[in-house]
Amino acid sequence: MNDIARALCATVCIVATISASATGSHADELKLMCPPPMRTAIVDLVAQFERATAHKVEIVHIPSRFIMDRVRGGEAVDVTILTAAATDALIKEGKLTRRTDVARSSIGIAVVEGAPKPDASSADALKRTLLAVKSFARNEGAESGAHIVSVFERLGIAEQMKGKTKPIPINSGYVAGTVARGEIEMAAQQMPELKAVKGVQATPLPPELQLYITFAAGRSASVKHTGSVEALENFLRAPPAAAVYRVKGLDPI
């Protein structure tokens, strides 16, 4: 049994104990909204949670801004996965009642698998790497896209990158898909989104240019099944889940 399998088995035991003590054998149906950066990790962890308990979790995969719009519009949901800042905003508005930090994301660049690994070891190295590429893609309307534009500006290459950068609208799939399909030479997005795409290799930005984003589970103000929701929150925070987050390109909290 490998480390990930052992970690997941330990997580299952933890959650089974928590869930049994909180809800007995009763099966609840929960609804969770999740943005693209957390998608692959949440899918795996929720599957383990469902196998360990009698509960079922419907996962709605949409960008963060749409999650916030739908929650503000009154749509029923039990748990949201959003940035810590977005979660705090909805708590302040009375839409959520509790924040549980689960993982931290970062920004990276990706090229096709098999190509030379891009040098992003320092700000100067990244500048040379970006200037050398013929085409580049980033998110439009997402935090990672805004950050990479600010990186261009900090490196003094905004004008040089403008003509060869393709903005990809949110809700259009992972940006690195353009690299995997051979349409674009290099793409930038959050590391878990880059690592979710087969056929590409991802490299994080250097620390001096990095943006770290904390993701949290938010508990809805309209939760009906408090015990099962708490079991899910604890599961996503349990130490053995850290192995899953790391494999998916996230840092556990």
Question: What are the main properties of this structure?
Answer:
253 residues, alpha/beta, D-Maltodextrin-Binding Protein, domain 2, five-stranded mixed sheet, elongated
**Proportion in helices:** 40-55%
| Biggest sheet, spatial arrangement of strands | 2-1-3-10-4-11
Q: How would a textbook summarize the main sheet? A: 6 strands, mixed
Mean pLDDT: 92
Counted up, domains total 2
- Poorly predicted ranges: 15-24
| Assigned CATH class of the largest domain | Alpha Beta
Q: Which shape, going by the Cα principal axes? A: elongated
Estimate the strand proportion: 15-25%
Radius of gyration: 19 Å
> Architecture of the largest domain in CATH?
3-Layer(aba) Sandwich
CATH superfamily of the largest domain: Periplasmic binding protein-like II
Distance between the termini: 25 Å
At CATH level 3, the topology of the largest domain is D-Maltodextrin-Binding Protein, domain 2
**Secondary-structure element string:** HEHEHEHEEHEHHEHEHEEHHE
**How many strand elements?**
11
Helix segment count?
11
Quick structural gist:
The protein has 253 residues and is α/β, with parallel strands linked by helices. It has helices at 3-23, 39-52, 64-72, 84-92, 123-132, 143-155, 158-162, 177-180, 191-195, 226-237, 242-247; strands spanning 29-34, 56-61, 79-83, 96-105, 107-112, 136-140, 165-169, 186-190, 200-204, 213-220, 251-252.
What can you see in these coordinates?
The chain is an alpha/beta fold and 253 residues long. The chain has 2 domains: 143 residues, D-Maltodextrin-Binding Protein, domain 2, CATH 3.40.190.10; 103 residues, D-Maltodextrin-Binding Protein, domain 2. It is 43% helix and 25% strand. The protein is built from 11 helices and 11 strands. Helix 1 crosses helix 2 and helix 1 packs antiparallel against helix 10.
